[in-house]
Amino acid sequence: MALEDAWGKGGGSRPLTELSLRTIMAAIQDLNGSLDPKLDAVIVDATLLHAGLKKVAEEVTTAEIDITHLQSTSKRLEDQAARSRGDLQYEKTIIRFFLDFTLKVQR
């Protein structure tokens, strides 16, 4: 699955749904190996995550989430990744951030 498939085709905005969140997770899983049920061993590339979150932020309204905060947080995680490649604890932090974001959007 190409990463672009996670965002769907066509122009215009569409509301973020649980289905699109599952598609985003599937795209990340496809590009980063199999998804551990406990999320303990998943390696998520921070650059991919930053791009994905930025795209998701474009699809949700500012009433649902502070997009500026999201972008600065994901950029900070991306910068941290450049300094700490291979650190499993860091990778778990990215997963937790993504899951927290997912829950926040679904509210």
What's this model, at a glance?
The protein is mainly alpha-helical and 107 residues long. Helices cover 61% and strands 0% of the residues.
Key terms:
disordered N terminus, 4 helices, 107 residues, globular, single chain, 61% helix, mainly alpha
How does this model look, in words?
The structure is a single chain. The chain is mainly α and 107 residues long. The protein has one domain. 61% of the residues lie in helices and 0% in strands. It is built from four helices and no strands. The protein has helices at 18-32, 46-59, 67-83, 88-106. α2 (46-59) runs antiparallel to α3 (67-83) and α3 packs antiparallel against α4 (88-106). The model is unreliable at 1-19 and 35-43 (pLDDT under 50).
SSE inventory with pairings:
Blueprint: H1 18-32, H2 46-59, H3 67-83, H4 88-106
